[in-house]
Amino acid sequence: MKGVLNYIGSVDVSPESCYLHHELLNLMLVLMSTQLCSGPSPEPKDVHPFIDAAMLQDSSIVASVVQKLLLNFVRRPQIPSNGSHPVFSDDGGPGVLQRVGSAAANFVLLPYYTFNYFVSASAEGTTSQLADNSLLVLLILIYYRKCISMNESIPTDGVYMSDSNTNVKDAPAFHENPYCKALNNAKDIQFDHADVEGNAQNGPVVSLSFASLFDALGTCLKDESSVLLLYSLVHGNCDFQEYVLVRTDLDTLLMPILEMLYNASRKTSNQIYMLLIILLILSQDSTFNASVHKLVLPSVPWYQERLMHQTSLGSLMVVVLIRTIKYNLSKLRDVYLHTNCLAILANMGPHAHRLSAYASQRLVSLFDMLSRKYAKLAELKNDKALKVTPDQMEADIISDDTSTELHIYTDFLRIVLEIINAILTYALPRNPEVVYAVLHRQEVFQPFKNHPRFNELLENIYTVCYFFVFRELNKVQHIIVFFLQILILIIFRLINLSVRYWISSTVEWTCNS
């Protein structure tokens, strides 16, 4: 294992070494496939000798392997389609046996060359098996966790860690993963933090161009493994997260993510979760929320329901997230997926800037859809409360389930109201379309006006509505008064002309007489 990792980390990929790199990566995947025979959660009795040996390597080898695997993913080296295997004798010229062996190797590998040629041609050169295998090996290495057995003592020097999602007493303890640590400590080669902050890392550090990594992720994000790498970097590497947040071309990453969420029916719930968590992490930064609303997209070709020209990236995010909520409500019915989508919208709400008319309408229609679901659950709960059933225990269980679901939808409605209220409170002058959408559909809020959970939120929303309604009424009144004044002037003018005409006619008649 040390020899394999040392070669991968120290030898650059070239036309001469690409085949050996490819086979070594395949060998790594096979050797680490023992995890397929284990359960979904790591246990102390699991035996993975090869990947355990990889975890025991020196930090220099670990850093070089992580860096080279990332570089393979970024550079996407191609295996030559005309692959030849020249074998030379000691005097520099090919011997008879060497020529026969080379010809035999080329003949045996002919199907592989043909497949690689057509794959490369069909994907316009973007497909790279070396890059794909490098990414798979990297993900397996950084997400491996080895449990501590019962006869091992847990030291206090930070070598071990426990699962933070469970209680401390029952939480399993794991050995620290050096590859995960190396990825989390990776630095941008164009910006040395040690010179600025004075916090140089002890030992070798993974360094590469974050700009190239950002562009590579934007190109390959339609692949599930690339999404997992982006999540790993955004969640674990603070430097890369900061780099992403200060980029002005956020559409490079967000457009593929939004397109995958738009096609949520073709994705599994785990894939949708991963995409939403990435957006949730990024939306916690106010700079990100401000940037996505100021970035204008000329068109969105993959959005089929409506032509979207010159719309902001923030408006597109709102539309796609609401569409994901509606899909989840009809198909998956996953409460936590709802929560993640609404949390992203809540983070974006106070920073909304010129939200489009379509996005504003979708936001109000989301409240309408959830309110209708809430009304059905409330009616169902009342019907079951009045209905007499012989099995009282079963009736109580059904009633409890309905009450729980009703409480969940109450929380959802409150979050949507908080989103609308945040836009009206902090970004009212910049979002006239939201005001118009609320005014146009203000009847959907009426049934909840006296609800104790929504009272203070709806009070603020109705205050805004009344202000604009009264302002429009005042405008109408001013217009009516203006037209009345003009009408009175016209009437007086006509009376004046009539009187003058009558006087002149009378005088003329008198003179003639």
From TrEMBL:
Pfam families for this protein: Dymeclin
Entry's transmembrane regions: 479-503
Keyword line: Lipoprotein, Membrane, Myristate, Transmembrane, Transmembrane helix
InterPro entries, A to Z: Dymeclin
Record-stated family: Belongs to the dymeclin family.
Protein name: Dymeclin
